[in-house]
Amino acid sequence: MQSHNMRASPFLAACRREPVSHTPVWIMRQAGRYLPEYRKIRAEVDFLTLTKTPDLAAEVTIQPIRRFGMDAAILFSDIMTPVEGMGVSIEFAPGPVVKDPIRSLQQVEALVVPDPEESVPFVLETVGILSDELPESAPLIGFAGAPFTLFCYLVQGRGTKTFAEAKGFLFAEPEASRLLLDKLADTMIAYLAAQAASGAKALMLFDSWAGLLSPEAYETFAFPSVKRVMDALGSADVPLIYFPNQGATLLETARGSGADVIGVDWRIPLSKAREVLGPDVAVQGNLDPSALFASRDELGRQIDRVLAEAGPTPGHIFNLGHGIERTTDPDSVAFLVDRVHETSSRELWDATCGDVASGV
Predict the structure, then answer these.
(1) Residue of 17, 29, 274, 339 with catalytic role
(2) Active site residue 339
(3) pLDDT recorded at residue 164
(4) What is d(CA 178, CA 231) in angstroms, rounded to the nearest whole number?
(5) Catalytic residue status for 346
């Protein structure tokens, strides 16, 4: 059954570094606020209600597949969703705000590792709906925040550019920090495993703030919790994707995470990333989201450059190097998806037929 799914889905095949008919493409934050059909739904419900109403969350997840024909869908949810079940009180204003930021070992010890069936049944119901409704050609990616990224929000209390309080806690309270990262890892393991059991065909860990750390601090604090998650999810038998944002200096360590795919932002060419990561890891990325504001000619050039940098070796999923900007024109996204499909199909066709024609 799985091999049939692989053939039906270029995305799943690329995750496994198998040959594909075209380079698969999806976009981080593809379900959301740049789409008029999403804004129409959001005009009637707030963000939190939307994430917790399975029918609506499923509809929003499917919208970009319907409109653009991407090769994968990403679950519409928020990285903070599973954290509430640990005993953390969160509100959105508009980003996540933790009412009582974690600043002591006692607070960490009080946190629990919840059962996803009890703490986030609405997420699992959404995944189940999508598992039934999505075409085989666009499998669902379940996701969670990486432990260090969640740690940043829980300790800092809200999003900032530097997360100075969180980084300070990491160095000042290493014992409490490790315990918190372990509890977050165990919570995400249960959360992601439940998504896979409910029908998600791939699992992704977003490490949005990994790039705040030096390679040494990353290896000491953030990486062990990522490895813990990936090792535990190996038995889920679905591709695992890890995205260390601003992680160009971290790739050497990240390649040992156990992830099948490493997401790469735009700060390093894919050719260089592939050199560092080696042949056993697929790559995902890495167009600058701002390129979607360029003229069609320039956007086409940027897309072709990423495809060329990825090279002919199997194992590239085209994506942006970060989430799509809210003011992006949906027509630019349509152009992107079509260009990736057409150019990569032609290139793969040329490469194959060229070999045949020359008698190779």
Answers:
(1) 29
(2) no
(3) 97
(4) 18
(5) no
Q: Active-site residue among 34, 38, 71, 78?
A: 78
Helix (H) or strand (E) holding 319: strand 316-320
β-pair type (316-320, 282-287): parallel
Does the annotation mark 153 as catalytic? Answer: yes
* Distance from C-alpha of 359 to C-alpha of 280, rounded to nearest angstrom: 30
CATH of the structural domain 2-357, one choice from 3.20.20.30, 3.40.50.11420, 3.40.50.2000, 3.20.20.210: 3.20.20.210
Which one of 153, 191, 218, 242 is the catalytic residue? Answer: 153
| Confidence band of 353 (pLDDT split at 50, 70, 90) | low
Contacts 24+ apart (CB under 8 A), 257-264: 257/223, 257/226, 257/227, 257/230, 258/227, 258/230, 258/231, 258/234, 259/205, 259/230, 260/15, 260/16, 260/17, 261/15, 261/315, 261/317, 263/204, 263/319, 264/321
Q: Are strands 316-320 and 96-98 parallel, antiparallel or unpaired?
A: unpaired
| Mean pLDDT value of segment 55-64 | 98
Q: Is 16 an active-site residue? A: no
Please give the Cα distance from 225 to 186 (Å, whole number): 9
pLDDT band at 358 (very low <50, low <70, confident <90, very high): very low
* pLDDT > 90: percent of the chain: 92
- Phi-psi sector, 154: left (phi>0), alpha (psi -120 to 50), beta: alpha
Whether the pLDDT of residue 271 is over 50: the answer is yes
Give residue-wise pLDDT tens across range 3-39: 334 468 999 999 999 999 999 999 999 999 999 999 9
pLDDT in tens, 76-127: 999 999 999 999 999 988 889 999 999 999 999 999 999 999 999 999 999 9
Question: What 8-state DSSP symbol labels residue 286?
Answer: E
The DSSP code sequence of 155-205 is HHSB--SS-HHHHHHHHH-HHHHHHHHHHHHHHHHHHHHHHHHHT-SEEEE
Other beta carbons within 10 Å of 138: 25
